[in-house]
Amino acid sequence: MEHSLFSKPRDLFLDIVNPRDYVQIDSVSHMYQNLKTSVQKPLKMILLYGKPGTGKSMLLHKLHHDLSKHQKVFMIDIPIIDESDFLRVLAQKIYSYVNREAITLTDFLELASAVNYAQTPIVLLDEAQLYSTLLMEKIRLISDARALKFVITLHKTQDEDIIAKEHFQTRIWESIELKNASPEELKVYIQKKLLKANCFDVANMFNDKNIQLISKLTRGNYRDANKLMFSLFSLYAWYEEKYPSKIKYNALKTKWIEMAAIHTGLIRA
Amino acid sequence: MLDIPSLEQRWLKYKIKRSLPYLLTVVGTIIVVITLNYFLNPDKVSIPLTIKKEVNQSKEGSKTSIHDEAMVLEPSMQFIQSIPVTAPDITTPEVNTPAKPLPVTPKKILPVQKNIPSPLPIIKNVPNTIPTPPMPKLIQSNPNSIKRDSATFNIHEIEDRFTNNSNPHLGLYIARYHYDNGNYSEAYNYALKTNAINNTIEESWLIFTKSLIKLGKTDQAKKTLQLYISQSDSEEAKNLLNSLNKEGTK
Ligand SMILES: Nc1ncnc2c1ncn2[C@@H]1O[C@H](COP(=O)(O)OP(=O)(O)OP(=O)(O)O)[C@@H](O)[C@H]1O
Ligand SMILES: [Mg+2]
Known about the structure:
Helix content of chain B: over 70%
Number of strands of chain B: 0
Number of strands of chain A: 5
Oligomer: heterodimer
Radius of gyration of chain B: 34 Å
Low-confidence stretches of chain A: none
Order of helices and strands of chain B: HHHHHHHHHHHHH
Distance between the termini of chain A: 28 Å
Structural class of chain A: alpha/beta
Number of helices of chain B: 13
Shape of chain A: elongated
Mean pLDDT of chain B: 67
Bound molecules: adenosine-5'-triphosphate, magnesium ion
Number of helices of chain A: 11
Strand content of chain B: under 5%
Order of helices and strands of chain A: HHEHEHHEHEEHHHHH
């Protein structure tokens, strides 16, 4: 099974966030450029929000990867909900201030004013919906004092509109919404991913009808697309081993895409 | 792994279910046409008869051809594939809202804002009066505020998200949450799951062993720590193991 033509493309679609796997998709790249300029503006906090699986963490990791070449950036991808822990970790990572004891906001701001960076250090917070209102308020104060600049991602759920929360309503927030991909964008996403890994034969199997169906099933959600592609290629690998003659190499079988969608739960059957 | 034969069956059922309404409409229309025809031209009784015949013939025809194919390969599949495909029944995963315009319009939000009293007037004064440190007092006097305001925080939602996206960071977060709340068996479970996804996260191993200790399974905790130390050279794990051994000798 491991020598299969399909095992490599299958593993490309594991749901992993790694900035090296970032794919340029027009609308996303545009957003990313905006993000990079916004980050250099004074006194702005940046909010990346969107439904699950729209690429927020990916964009944040990419930003971290690119910015860290030029300036001080620190990313907290697992939320630190305890407030004094939060300040302590920041103090350590950004100002190399090691202290086992709790740090107050006042201490922290004093520390910040004592250390001079050419550019304000940037802190990236993933999954920021997990932070308390109180901690968000402190984050805002740190940003107000120009000690640090924050870029945060918020996962938006159906039943709760976190962006409507009072602390995101102030002008200092610049918000960028990430959306699901259009069929064209999804095509670019899948094709680029395959081509980047030299899976040319497999990339050639996708025709427009296939893409339309995949887009319809996943609604252009990147995570759902990953899941669907993963099980589709697993399915192809299985047929390749058992019934190779059933595989057509000039197009994907609608039936098999639908079977993969049933397997991933995108189709209820 | 994938169970392709059963997937094939589920797919077939799905196709039949999908095409049933279509078949029913076709049959229904034919019946309506026949009856209408009959009532509008009651004299020409022959018309429905001929149609009936045709229908019967075509039925027989298709039956035999299907039968022939059955000898060769997947007959039912062929039959199903010849039926026009209608839009697939897409399930709506609970997290994925249909593309609705975002309700971020200020009009909608304002009332919410009004209802919520400005949460922490004391903090707002802080930047102006930096020398006085009101923060720690505030935190200590209200220890619950450190945790989460219950409105936004629902650990089950995060657990669901973890089940969905198997993100080890979320797993660790949940393990830590349960550990902090004294729920050690849950902390153990989630740390275990997290380690299964990514076995290089130090904190997850530590929560795992600390939960074991809290659950009274010190021996297992020691074994786990030794195993982890052999792979990672973790200082914290060594310290923890040392203190466990000391306690043991006391
Ligand atoms: N531009 C991109 N290039 C490559 N892969 C991407 C891109 N955008 C999204 N992905 C893929 O989509 C998957 C989901 O994206 P990501 O984890 O960033 O979503 P998210 O918005 O952070 O979701 P959640 O709200 O659940 O945290 C990632 O695993 C990644 O593989
Ligand atoms: Mg994310």
